[in-house]
Amino acid sequence: MLNRFLIKPIKYILSFECFFTLFLWAGTYKTDPRLSWFPLDFTVFFFALSIFASLLILFRPDFKLNKNAADITLAAIPFFLFTILSLIWSQGSIYANEKTWKVGVLVFYCFIACAIIIASNPIRIKRFILFLLLISLWKSIDSFNVLYISVFAFRADALEVFGSDYIAISRVIGTGAVIVLCRIIFLKEKFYFKIIGTGVICFYIYVLLISGARGPIFALALVFFIIIGLIGFILVNSKKWGFSIKQPTLILLLVLSLIIPAIYFINSLPNPPRSIARIGIIFGEEHGGTSAGTRFDYGVASFQLWQKSPIWGHGIGSFPLLLGLGDIVEYPHNIILEILAEQGILGLVFFITLLVCCLSKLGPIREIVNEPLKRVIIFLFIFSLLNAFVSGDLSSNRIMFAFLGLMAFKNKPEINTHEKD
Q1: What is the pLDDT of residue 416?
Q2: Which residues have a Cβ under 8 Å from the Cβ of 18 and sit 6 or more positions away?
Q3: How far apart are CA 414 and CA 404, in angstroms?
Q4: Which of the residues 178, 238, 266, 287 has an alpha carbon 20 to 30 A from that of 134?
Q5: How far apart are CA 171 and CA 165, in angstroms?
Q6: What is the pTM of this model?
Q7: 394 contacts 80 by C-beta, under 8 angstroms
């Protein structure tokens, strides 16, 4: 009896989705001093384990490639290939070479792993979402202990949570908040479960408010407003689509909406949480403060660089050198402007083609509304895309490409039914 009870957790721990998730978010815990006893780099270790697990899956006799996965992989090849080849005309060296192998290997792997393996089976998608949620809970509790209990909770300098910066941590927490939000709003759960989920979201939001992050908070707020708009759309078309929103869910939605005026009230306090204070800087100081002002200047500079080489850009990793910053890790903090400056209009066309191809595989809006997994996938992608508009470069936004890959999911009888790892 005990053995049967342990089999499922062990299968989950040894699953491809577990190894892949730990690889995907390795940057949030690899520098944790509590894990310093581990002799290997966590990114390399879990990357190798996930590669090994993926090979075991791909070489199974019963594995069949999903047509959607094949289509979006073919659509992704021009973008990734052109980005890698842009190293040929790039003036960069150290940063350019590092960025090239990360985009060509790590980011592309995240995309195809989700498209070919995880999206092939709804069980795998659910398992992947579960591990995303578990990591978000782990890092939110860690962040709460460090940021709230610590005397540094309201300091103006950059914060770290066991070696990981607050932006990366906030993205993990925001991802978990999106998952819980989709579950309590759209799925037919018992009311007490929805109450617990609402409490978890409030905890996530509180940790985000004291973390100092702004981009993930704006992204989460926009996702929330999009969900409200979708609910309105569903209510209008409920009879035609056969899908409805229950009254308890609408009550919870109203409760969550009260968070916005609550944040406004908190901002009026003498010592508001760090994120609220930093958001106030955007609207209260000239050019939005140092951080926002620098990013605005980078955005203008990247657009000017694109105008000098509009067709194929200046090459991968060339941005900091062309700005006179040296061969360092620096970028426009906006994925569209980054692609324009370094890969030109051709790179942007390839990128938009990839987006359109992936989004088309999700099907019409009616199908997305009626399929729980597709709803979660689209909102996770929107959250990660909004973050990519204000932070990170191509190599550090691999979670966005992972969610793009999940759009290959096809809830039809011909999908793979294998569960073993």
Answers
A1: 43
A2: 12, 127, 131
A3: 21
A4: 266
A5: 10
A6: 0.89
A7: no
Distance (Å, whole) CA 142 – CA 397: 23
Asked whether the beta carbons of 111 and 355 are under 8 A apart, the reply is: no
The pairing of beta strand 160-161 with beta strand 164-165: antiparallel
Provide the percentage of residues in the chain whose pLDDT is more than 70: 80
- The Cα–Cα gap between 245 and 232 comes to 10
> What confidence score (pLDDT) does residue 419 get?
44
- Is there a contact between 128 and 21 (Cβ–Cβ < 8 Å)? yes
Q: What is the H or E stretch that residue 165 is in?
A: strand 164-165
- Distance of CA 158 to CAs 153, 211, 225, 254, 273, Å? 11, 9, 29, 34, 14
Distance in angstroms (rounded) separating the CA atoms of residues 245 and 258: 19
DSSP secondary structure letter of residue 66: -
Whether 164 and 142 have beta carbons less than 8 Å apart is answered as no
Query: Please, are residues 399 and 106 in contact by the beta-carbon 8 Å criterion?
Result: no
Q: Which helix (H) or strand (E) element contains residue 164? A: strand 164-165
Residue pointed to by tokens 């005990």:
2
Q: What is the pLDDT of residues 107-139, one digit of tens each?
A: 999 999 999 999 999 999 999 999 999 999 999
Which amino acid is residue 409, in one-letter code? F
The vertex-246 CA angle with 240 and 250, nearest 5°, equals 115
Q: Which two tokens stand for residue 380?
A: 């996770």
- The dihedral of CA 388, 393, 396, 402: what is its sign? positive
